[in-house]
Amino acid sequence: MLKKENILLVDDDIDILELLQRHLKSLDYHTYKAVSVKEALYILKDTEIDLLVTDINMPEIDGLQLVKYVAEHYPDMPKLVVTGFPSVEDASNVIKHGATDYLTKPFTKAELEAAVKKALASKEAKQAFKRPQVRPVATNGYADMIGDSEAFQKVTEIIDRVKDNRATVLVRGESGTGKELVARAIHYSGKFARAPFIAVNCGAIPENLLEAELFGYTKGAFTGANENRDGFFQAAHKGTIFLDEIGNATLPVQNRLLRVLQEKEVTKIGSQKPEKLDVRVIAATNSDLDELIQKKTFREDLFYRLSVVTVDVPPLRERTSDIPLLVDKFMQKYGIEYKDRFVRIADEALEVLKRYSWPGNIRELENVVQRAVIMCDGKITLEHLPDELKYKIDFPEKGFKTLQEKEKEYIREVLLSTQGNKTKAAEILGINRKTLREKLK
User: Fold this and answer.
1) How many CA atoms are closer than 13 Å to the CA of 231, on its beta-carbon side?
2) DSSP strands (E only) in 326-381
3) Angstrom distance (rounded) from CA 239 to CA 231
4) In this predicted model, which residue has the larger pLDDT, 16 or 420?
């Protein structure tokens, strides 16, 4: 289970940022990432952070200024500094402004763990900077999601941490795992629930229209633009925009999206005037963004802007203990809709559902249960489940025979049809009796 502490990591070196996150994640800490001081301030604004881990040497605004800012605005927040260019002056400055430790790159995972524990211990000693405990997750449900497996609870723990702030979230998972449900849970469980939630499927909108739909346009910006029109981003002002299948966004759209995330403003197509925007961005993908980055079809800097917080939604095969709960939910939903009553399921049918690997995840399970409810008379049994879910026998591949073996096999078939009459068999085969005898040896 995740520890209760939230740690903010700030470094313009992406490799170090990833290394820090990987180490801390393995130690069960929850992390927020920022590649600049500016982004760090946006996260600090409305997120409960227990520890700041920051680099010193960064472009534009250095980490020392961030340390000083935190020392005054969040005086009880411990601060851990990491740097690749150590100096006596920097060390004395950061310690003077309350940093608990000063790590020099490269450092080991053990050194990082010790420094983090020391910093958090100093916070506990002060008994300050207290925040409400994370609300306990319901035993078997959260928002419209359901489950009680450890994998499910890890997802809901992260939702609890981000629901009341505007940190950008990247939701990753296979198709059908419920990524949009996670996005809706983040929005509707938090303090921005009354604001708009705008869902956009980047893969469903034609490439040439996506930019205009997202950012809006002015009259005359292109053929058919007969009026000024707001885009999805403007519609989501003060609320949340959910960008599904973000891996399908074109590079021009990615460029504009990066600017929106950096500057917190959007410019309509055909306009030169940017509009300030207060919106939380949640993106989702079932694509391997690392692979797309290697292929140069997805911007690496956009990826790091989107993944301030990452939620990895597990496939159903990794949370099989949740299958009975999901089946009950879907039987109740479709039993009332189609049968006007509750539907039950036979134990052996449930065992088949629990055994299946579900490549289509929760969406596939829901479809199977929906069909079974329609076909049954109050109780789902094995006969109501698709054959592909049931036990299969894997027959060995049929091996190929040599030409000689196939020839002998055919000759025996002909002899069988002639009741062993070799003269008649030779006639049928178009050979003489002597050749037939040779072939039978």
Assistant:
1) 28
2) 344-345, 379-380
3) 14
4) 16
Give the whole-angstrom CA distance, residue 313 versus residue 183. Answer: 11
Beta strands in 245-365 (DSSP E): 265-266, 275-276, 280-285, 309-312, 344-345
Look at residue 216 and tell me whether its pLDDT is greater than 70: yes
Measured distance CA(192)–CA(95) in Å, rounded: 38
Both tokens of 340, joined, read: 């006007």
For 228-282, where are the alpha helices, taking DSSP H only?
Answer: 232-235, 251-263
pLDDT digits (tens, 9 = 90+) for 100-142: 788 888 889 999 999 999 888 876 655 444 443 443 333 467 7
- Region 78-102 average pLDDT: 77
Own/partner pairs, 126-131, CB within 8 angstroms, 24+ separation = 126/76, 128/76, 129/50, 129/74, 129/76, 129/77, 131/48
Q: Which of 4, 117, 102 is nearest to 55 (CA)?
A: 102
Q: 310-313: long-range contacts (C-beta < 8 A, 24 or more apart)? A: 310/169, 310/170, 310/171, 310/172, 311/155, 311/158, 311/159, 311/169, 311/170, 311/171, 311/172, 311/182, 312/155, 312/172, 312/173, 313/155, 313/171, 313/172, 313/173, 313/174, 313/177, 313/178, 313/179, 313/182
Q: Which helix (H) or strand (E) holds 109?
A: helix 109-126
Q: What is the pTM of this model?
A: 0.78
Q: Give the residue from 69, 46, 65, 55 showing the smallest Cα distance to 15.
A: 55
Residue type, 120: L
Segment (H or E) for 122: helix 109-126
Strand 280-285 vs strand 240-244: parallel, antiparallel, or unpaired? parallel
- Here the tokens at position 23 are 């180490």
Contact 123, 51 (CB under 8 A): yes
Alpha carbon of 245 to those of 284, 296, 364, 377, 394: distances in Å? 6, 17, 19, 39, 37
Task: Give the pairing of strands 30-34 and 6-10.
Answer: parallel
For residue range 308-366, list pLDDT tens digits in order.
999 999 999 999 999 999 999 999 999 999 888 889 999 999 999 999 999 999 999 99
Place of tokens 């910006």: 221
Rounded Cα gap, residues 388 and 386, in angstroms: 6
pLDDT computed for residue 14 by the predictor: 87
Taking the CA atoms of the chain, what radius of gyration do you get in angstroms? 31
Tokens (6 digits) for 358: 């579900």
